[in-house]
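Form 12-C: Joint structure prediction
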Amino acid sequence: MADPPRHLLAIEGLQPPPITALLDLAESYVLLNRSGQTARDLLRGRTLINLFFEDSTRTRTSFELAGKRLGADVINMAVASSSVNKGETLLDTAATLNAMHCDLLVVRHNQSGAPNLLAQKVDAAVINAGDGTHEHPTQALLDALTIRRRTGRIAGLVVAICGDIVHSRVARSNIHLLTTLGARVRVVGPPTLIPAAIERLGVAVFHDMAEGLAGADVVMMLRLQRERMIGGLVPSAREYFRFWGLDAAKLAKAAPAAIVMHPGPMNRGIEIDSLVADDPARSVIREQVEMGVAVRMAVLDTLARARPKLRND
Ligand code: CP
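Section 2 - Result
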């Protein structure tokens, strides 16, 4: 049997068995969380540090909750008031945290590859919580868990990932995971927001929403990431919504039981209409958030089991 992974840096390169094992373990944590119970013995004596160089609501909070429900000591490093502000480099920050014998380091950074770099320098298990435009592996895992629970499968589903693909680490991780598990993935958006040669990742490209959504089982909308855009890649917000925003009329092109997803945070009225986002019959956006806690518990549990306990508390 292969050794368990030491870090979770990307979905790319993972084979179906470890992905499915994480989803199966996360299922058990969904049940635990819904029962109101915790499993505080599992990570007792372990330390988890959340190191977020970019803003986050869902990911940071759910890692904190996940760690606490498993009994870890959780520290949220306030980057804005840390010595990073005095010019300390990423590697010096990592060396400092390493000297404190942290077990699990959850990192979000605006530079693609920053968590990989840290993983080479620290003893802790590093978890990528989103790096630049590269990957957001736990988001793809929670999306897959949501899809699997709603539809009963992933293989064979048609999944349309729509909008700002070029800036989206969520899209990249989802493409790797969903194609690895046998889904048929489409990317749908304006040419300016779709990376060149993305077909090499095994997806079909559509520049028309009606065509891209036709018969889709899952419609995954992405946030328009204007903070990462250089120059005018899109027309006005109003025009963007007209052509690329998901409303009831565009959703009618998808399969009758298609589910609607969004990783959050949403730009309402830009990439998605509130009537669709808040429709409990179609939208699984709140369920995605719930699955995020369970998936992060599964990831922390799996990575902690793969490391020797360094200290006895
Ligand atoms: N989906 C996601 O990563 O959300 P946050 O930026 O709030 O963590």
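Section 3 - Comments
The mean pLDDT is 94. Residues 56-59, 130, 139, 263-265 surround phosphoric acid mono(formamide)ester (CB under 6 Å).
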